[in-house]
Predict the structure of 3-phosphoshikimate 1-carboxyvinyltransferase.
Amino acid sequence: MEHYAAPRPTSPVDRAVSLPGSKSLTNRALLLAALSDGPSVVRRPLRSRDTDLMAGALTALGTHVDVVEGDWRVTPSPWTSDAKVDCGLAGTVMRFVPPVAGLSEGTVAFDGDPHMRNRPVGPMLAALAALGIRFDDGGRGALPFTVRGSGSVPGGTVTIDASASSQFVSALLLAGARFEHGVDVRHVGKPVPSLPHIDMTVAMLREHGVDVDDSDANRWAVAPGVLRAVDHVIEPDLSNAAPFLALAAATGGRVTVSDWPRHTTQPGDALREVLALMGADVVLDDRGLTVTGTAELHGIDLDLHDIGELTPAIAALCALADSPSHLRGVAHIRGHETDRLAALARELGGLGSVVEEHDDGLTIRPGDLHGGVFHTYADHRMAHAGVILGAVVEGVLVEDIATTSKTFPGFAATWTGLVEGLVGGPAGTQQP
Ligand SMILES: O=C(O)C1=C[C@@H](OP(=O)(O)O)[C@@H](O)[C@H](O)C1
Ligand SMILES: C=C(OP(=O)(O)O)C(=O)O
């Protein structure tokens, strides 16, 4: 496989870009549309590997999912036949679809990419059993497994340790209104990561008219009921904005990400704070979010527990900073597309950064950075880390840049175009 020679700007980047839709919003919107009481449209969806896998899973179950002028039209239909679901490497498919498969009258077989068999799902499967869903996982608590749907799910109260992934909780809540007794989820264990993603789930359920009580910490109760069909307009993916904004911060350029929402449940919104802390100038206005790199890029001491998926891009910036950084609270990202703490320690270290790996984070000290191959472990966000470093350090070769298609098809073309000043308009202008 040919490596991607990460481009370096020859003059300060000064561009505005329009980014594809959010993976997390698109996959929730698709699933909720399939559970709703009539047809609806998911507008400006992300079309990428993860979202195509979700559309494929719902289609396999029996839902009609059609592309109409670039949008997804979803027409709910009864789920009566046996189905196979390919989860690929999409956590949202492996966690969100099994609870709803219990509503099917068929048997639904789940598998995915080789690494997907290592990603955590056992606690959620145990919760499904407690809610009355039958499945067969050969006692592994991991893929491959088969859900034996019976057309209805009793539901009720369930206790789960969701410290490995917030997606366990989101999955149970998304399906819960369709269970006979709804669902009352109580978390017991170390803190649940990525809480903004659970807030996103709760907010979207409410848009469908579902009654959700999240007034107590570590407890979420969804009342049984009908999901009203509503159209969703998908916001740009703010987590995928990370490398583009980091480019400005790291190279002293200026990048505007258009259509940045004023209010959002996406955890990527925290980039505004993180980049400002590191020394960049950050402005949110009607044109979008504009980040301007200054002459300084400082290390940070930050708990990333709520925003774990941003760790690779932030770690890459830390490797370019002028002082040490301590990134904490992200033990759970060892269960992401790859063990991200191990992968970052190895790859940043391989380019000369001084990195210490801890159980739940990384200490990153300024080092004498040099070029080399940056391995990506089938992880889109490792590729983002690689191109950020390559924008500053001569001779960085990013392995398997195509892995970015998990959430951003055409990433390399957009990145090259931006670095070379060929895509989008000047920073601070509104993009279509
Ligand atoms: O619900 C979601 O859409 C997501 C939740 C988070 O998962 P974890 O809680 O497993 O980190 C996040 O990292 C992932 O990219 C998307
Ligand atoms: C953790 C991630 O993905 P997934 O939805 O597969 O868990 C991610 O995109 O950073």
